[in-house]
Amino acid sequence: MANIIPYSFRGALFSGQHNFSNGAGKNTFNISLYTGNPYAFTSTVYLPGTGNQEVDPGGSSNYVVKTLANQAVASATAVASIDFDNVTWTSATFTASYAAIYNNSTVDGTQNRLVVVLDFFGAKTATNGDFTIAFPDAATPANAIISMS
Q1: Distance CA 113, CA 49 (A)
Q2: Is the pLDDT of residue 1 over 60?
């Protein structure tokens, strides 16, 4: 399976419901890790909890949902893209195969609207170490996690 950009994200984006700028009025975007994929193209919101295959926090704050920082829109070329700072879970011991980015702000009357599901193409494991999701450099927007041409 490949990354999923839900149908609802496209409609909400073109309706001006997601604000990826880093300025006033910006939305807050979070990322959560999963052992399996509970989402489909028709999914609309973030699905919390181990019953939905979210990585079990195991009583540690190291595994909780992370807020993505320093979001930026790059649109200097024919491809517009969104970039975030890399995100790291430190002292981590878990396995994840997917991640979900969602808008924690309320958009079109819905909180936690799903933006994209990332497929790691297999299980990735950290054992008492760092687990990092590296977002591609904004200088190459065609490689971005979310881009539009």
Answers
A1: 16
A2: no
